[in-house]
Automatic annotation (TrEMBL):
Lineage: Bacteria, Pseudomonadati, Pseudomonadota, Alphaproteobacteria, Sphingomonadales
InterPro entries, per database record: BLH_phosphatase-like (IPR005939), Prot-tyrosine_phosphatase-like (IPR029021)
GO molecular function: hydrolase activity
Protein name per Swiss-Prot or TrEMBL: Beta-lactamase hydrolase-like protein phosphatase-like domain-containing protein
Location of the Beta-lactamase hydrolase-like protein phosphatase-like domain: 3-111
Organism encoding this protein: Sphingopyxis macrogoltabida
Length: 144
């Protein structure tokens, strides 16, 4: 069963999705699947190409912004910002648990000037705790 968790009207996150979840994403109105998991991180999980092919078969866009154990970079935030600015509909992002996807979204939205309290609240409602990321969110928001 799909575990899609909305962070906003245009962006939801999920733990690792399977091929069957791509059809469900299409049925729920998503326009893009965004992979935040590096290939090979879990060899038994569907890899990026598997999900990309399933997305193409469903008529969904696909993109990958891998976030590994090294953490986040401005290049990854820039990449998500570009995807968000060109999105033609709702995006479903996934990683192992949904946490990295949530963190990347939160960092991107904070840097864009969104209210940090609202970002933290949206993540909490989806089951993700951003308290450890709060200083970085505040710093990025302060750059605006």
């Amino acid at each position: 069963m799909s575990d899609f968790r909305p962070l906003s009207a245009q962006f939801s996150v999920a733990p690792q999705i399977g091929i069957e979840d791509v059809a469900e994403a299409k049925a729920q109105g998503f326009a893009m699947v965004l992979n935040n998991r590096p290939d090979g991180e879990e060899p038994s999980a569907p890899q990026g190409d598997d999900i990309a092919h399933a997305a193409a078969a469903e008529g969904l866009a696909y993109a990958a912004i891998p976030v590994g154990h090294a953490g986040f970079s401005h290049a990854q935030i820039d990449a998500l910002d570009k995807i968000l600015s060109h999105a033609t509909g709702p995006i479903l992002a996934y990683c192992r648990s949904g946490t990295r996807s949530t963190h990347l979204w939160a960092l991107t939205r904070a840097r864009a000037g969104d209210d940090v309290d609202a970002i933290v609240d949206a993540a909490a409602k989806a089951g993700y705790d951003l308290s450890g990321l709060r200083p970085m969110l505040d710093a990025l928001a302060g750059e605006k």
